[in-house]
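Below is a filled-in request sheet from our internal design queue. Each sheet records the structural input a requester submitted and the sequence that came back. We keep these sheets so that new team members can see what a complete request looks like end to end.

REQUESTER: design group, bay 2
PRIORITY: normal
MODE: inverse folding
CHAIN LENGTH: 211
BACKBONE (tokenized):
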């Protein structure tokens, strides 16, 4: 569990330098989602492998139990990211009202909103609570269980904090204006530009402007 905490803090510190301001293009937001998805899979995966190794080689019953529970908890974190991934995004549907980029922006915003909802907070804290109770009910000190619970909660909040929440704002902006503030979402079905035209009619010259 100390391993996962170390990785989580490292990701948190790294994110302070990589989370950009609002007004990003869809490509940039997708890149952020990709880093978030695979970065946290690496954190949970590495923690599960290291804790499993430690659980297998130690003879201390309390430590073995704590490491095994931590490995299992980290494995659940990987499974959750595989079952409900933030990235990759679904293939664009044939929606007559949305361009491919707009569809991807909408899908990303919905996924971020779901993971940042109260269910995302509750799921992480609840997993930490159950795991902490299992550890506390073993041969070690009960404080080890509460330490695990607190650390799991910290990891949960860091994961949610590092989500690319700009996608939600960009999608809301797109719904209002037809484009993201970064200017990348352009839907030809909303704005169509055509050149000026002219034609001769029996009673004179008629000038036409299409927009």
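RETURNED SEQUENCE:
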């Amino acid at each position: 569990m100390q391993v996962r905490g170390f990785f989580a803090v490292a990701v948190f510190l790294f994110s302070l330098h990589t989370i950009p301001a609002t007004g990003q293009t869809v490509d940039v937001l997708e890149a952020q989602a990709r880093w978030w998805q695979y970065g946290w899979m690496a954190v949970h995966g590495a923690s599960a492998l290291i804790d499993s190794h430690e659980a297998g080689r130690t003879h201390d019953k309390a430590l073995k139990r704590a490491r095994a529970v931590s490995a299992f908890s980290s494995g659940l974190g990987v499974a959750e990211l595989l079952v409900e991934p933030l990235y990759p995004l679904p293939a664009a549907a044939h929606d007559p009202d949305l361009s491919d980029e707009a569809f991807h922006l909408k899908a990303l915003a919905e996924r971020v909103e779901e993971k940042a909802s109260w269910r995302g907070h509750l799921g992480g804290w609840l997993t930490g609570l159950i795991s902490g109770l299992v550890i506390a009910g073993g041969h070690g000190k009960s404080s080890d269980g509460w330490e695990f619970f607190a650390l799991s909660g910290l990891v949960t909040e860091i994961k949610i904090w590092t989500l690319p929440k700009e996608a939600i704002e960009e999608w809301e902006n797109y719904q209002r204006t037809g484009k993201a503030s970064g200017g990348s979402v352009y839907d030809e079905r909303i704005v169509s530009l055509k050149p000026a035209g002219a034609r001769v009619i029996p009673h004179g010259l008629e000038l036409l402007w299409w927009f």
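SHEET NOTES:
- The helical segments are 2-18, 26-57, 61-83, 100-115, 118-136, 142-161, 166-177.
- The chain has one domain: 2-208.
FILED BY: M.R.
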